[in-house]
């Protein structure tokens, strides 16, 4: 039996928006290198950087019916996350569905399948991360679940988790730990700014990270060209 879960909780958008500014790589590192979706999901245009609450949607192979159902459950600040119940690269999503999502305040789409109307989506500046691009159309015949936990591109995503997506990929932050991950990511960003200033001044990473002793322990030797 297919279900649509209504009234699901979301992560506060003040947390979501700060995570968007930090980006996928920093957030992924801050939460212990977990939550990264598979690298097959790529943005259809660049640059692109967003974050939002996960609006989860399952679809049957070659069938986009439930995306229309999911739109009804959307709230401003959501990102629609779609996964097929079996692998399928058909073009599930195009400019008409994007127009509908924009009207409801949805910030973008993450889909482990295909999309089409890429030129129109780019002109609309509607961000999409997809497995592929395909003009192959879909039908509307098979119900599936909306706003239930899903696995998308290898990552477990629950409704209301935070999705952060940019040119580096997509990462999910569990709603329960989002505030903690944000604090860690901000601290990491501050630390990186300090390191960036030192590297810009000419300091070597070998010295800044105290790598020389460990490299020597691993057998690295420096020899003069005349000795080789």
Describe this structure as you would to a colleague.
The protein is elongated. Helix content is 33%, strand content 23%. Strand 5 (108-115), helix 5 (118-124) and strand 6 (128-133) form a beta-alpha-beta unit. The protein contains 8 helices and 10 strands. The protein is of the alpha/beta class and 228 residues long.
Layout of secondary structure:
Elements: H1 13-22, H2 24-30, E1 42-43, E2 50-59, H3 65-73, E3 78-84, E4 91-93, H4 95-103, E5 108-115, H5 118-124, E6 128-133, E7 150-152, E8 155-157, E9 162-166, E10 169-173, H6 178-200, H7 205-208, H8 212-217
Parallel strand pairs: 2-3, 3-5, 4-5, 5-6
Antiparallel strand pairs: 1-6, 2-9, 7-8, 9-10
Helix pairs in contact: 1-6, 2-6
